């Protein structure tokens, strides 16, 4: 009997020792806090399971993401208080064993759709004290085993129901919740599911003012909020009621003044254009009336070059053939005189001779 008891105790001791040794072998901790690192070190032990890179200057850029993919055995990753602004797609895609991810106290304002792809075993996600304004619930789809979601201390005003089937605890306080009809689905999910809202008493509505004393889980909603179509109108109505009258009037005055300035600026440009067009047209008309030099200049080119079959002009300026006036049938001498005088009035005659620029004077001198 004594031998049997001793054997049993020995076997139990060996099992406990084997479990402890196995745990010591699988758990490898690396602490790089407050090292002022901008990049994740590449010389970390490949078997690391718990990696703490908090209080550094890491940004999770492309280089850091590639380095992070090397540590496939990670079960816990801490990136508290770094310089992370964006969670890019596939940032943790190779960390299929990760169970705890803590990225609190950064400046995250964008989480891309596929940021959490590959985190099939993740149980705790901490995104507290960032600058998140809006979250697409579809980003949580890959997190099928998530138990705890921490969104405390962000800038979230509304939040659609996430697709988290195993979630047990959610932290939402410290956000400026707008308790309009858009938040009705979230409240209904919090009350009907098994999830627990931590710090429910301090997870309060920020607006409208009449609901600031209510928790987002207990705020009373009107029956209109149950309708999908009326929820939009209710949301807009609550939003405008939350704005003070002075702020609204000030904005309205600014809009009116800006519109008046804009219309005045456009009309001024139009009037200037019309005035310039009228002045230019008037100036051209005045020049054409008061300065007829251009008309006389054009008249001097009314003649044409003599054709080869036409007879040469004589020295007295008249052709051998009869004048064109003589070709006019049935014209008397008086009519011919009037026509000649009218033609002569348009000619500029200083010395009694008509100068034809097309006649070569050198040839005339040789002929003479």
How does this structure look, described?
- With 368 residues, the protein is an alpha/beta fold.
- It has three domains: 231 residues, Leucine-rich repeat, LRR (right-handed beta-alpha superhelix), CATH 3.80.10.10; 35 residues; 58 residues, no CATH class.
- It has eight helices and twelve strands.
- The strands form three sheets. An eight-stranded parallel β-sheet has the order 1-2-3-5-7-8-9-11, with no helix packed on it.
- Strand 2, helix 2 and strand 3 form a beta-alpha-beta unit.
- It is elongated.
- The chain starts with a helix and ends with a helix.
Estimated structural class: alpha/beta
The major pleated sheet works out as: 8 strands, parallel
State the domain count: 3
Mean pLDDT: 75
* Helical residues, percent: 25-40%
- Share in β-strands: 5-15%
What's the CATH H-level superfamily name of the largest domain? Ribonuclease Inhibitor
Q: Give the name of the CATH architecture of the largest domain.
A: Alpha-Beta Horseshoe
